[in-house]
Amino acid sequence: MPNDRTPDSSRRSERSRQAILEATRALISEVGYRKVSIEAIAARAGVGKQTIYRWWPSKGAVIFDSFLALSESAGGEGITLPDTGDIEADLRLVMRATVAEFADPAFEKPIRALNAEIVNDPDLAAQYREKLARPVDDAKKARLRSAQQAGQLAADADLDLVLEVLYAPLFQRWLHRTGPLTPEYADSLVDIALRAFRP
Amino acid sequence: MPNDRTPDSSRRSERSRQAILEATRALISEVGYRKVSIEAIAARAGVGKQTIYRWWPSKGAVIFDSFLALSESAGGEGITLPDTGDIEADLRLVMRATVAEFADPAFEKPIRALNAEIVNDPDLAAQYREKLARPVDDAKKARLRSAQQAGQLAADADLDLVLEVLYAPLFQRWLHRTGPLTPEYADSLVDIALRAFRP
């Protein structure tokens, strides 16, 4: 048996782990969550099924980690939002980027698949909240807090509510496909939130 | 063969139809969308499977109609919102009732099941928009339009956006189970929408 703790085998393990997570995301985009199988992930990643089962107990667990890895590579818990001192300009930038992501089929397909699972699975919903949503929300709230200190947002504004007003309309419009996802839409959401929570 | 157009057989048909739709909603609440079968619906409704297939081509179609019937019995296309002349009071009443519905397990379970399907099914999403959401949204927009005429909402407010700001935060909080669904929360959403869209 090789010793898993030697530098070479660690590197090899990490490479396999990344290949598995990438294959998982690619397959979800191509065939949808329900049709993804451990067999297909293993074939696509060029590893054996037993390699996957060594690290993850189930298909759901691999899929969840494939999203978590995406968020980590985008900054993970160290994520920060732009702070030019102008909350309106900074929020427009962030919201336009977010709207563009949800309008991008390559990005939105796996997120849609994850949402379909979350709706009926309270445990997965809790994991999603804690591991994926909360670190990002905390970063957003840090930026909103600095706007409160600068007198650009009401000092008593409930920051969870501010985030809901910014993001929930976009989320619902995307999930139910009820309207266009455009830069103008992103700007409208920023205007609404700033009007609703101005000092 | 009995003549389906005699009054007696029409009444019998309508009774069977209602029994099937009620059985469908009950089973979705109890076992979840995916485990509901045409066999189980037929057994619960006390009809034969062929009676179901005479009226509906698929499980999805019965389930969709079971929701549509719910909305019709609640007022359907003839739905109107209270109009006391005070948009704040009227919206509080409506939003508190909506929040209470989403906090009620008996109500929210079938809606959750429907949402899980809608996420990955653009055709069902379109049916949902046209047949279920639009008539209700039109009624809400009629009430908002009367508030615009009374000078209580900005004359140029985009009413689809007003509805998104009122309902999307509640929808996301409910779907992702991210916070409590209370009367105070309903009131906050009304306050936010009225501040964001005041004249």
TrEMBL record, chains A, B:
GO terms for molecular function: DNA-binding transcription factor activity; transcription cis-regulatory region binding. The keyword Transcription regulation applies. SUPFAM superfamilies: Homeodomain-like, Tetracyclin repressor-like, C-terminal domain. Keywords: DNA-binding, Transcription, Transcription regulation. InterPro entries: Homeodomain-like_sf, HTH-type_TetR-like_transc_reg, HTH_TetR, Tet_transcr_reg_TetR-rel_C_sf, TetR_C. Pfam families: TetR_C_11, TetR_N. It comes from the Bacteria. PROSITE patterns: HTH_TETR_2. Residues 37-56 bind DNA. This is TetR/AcrR family transcriptional regulator. Residues 14-74 form the HTH tetR-type domain.
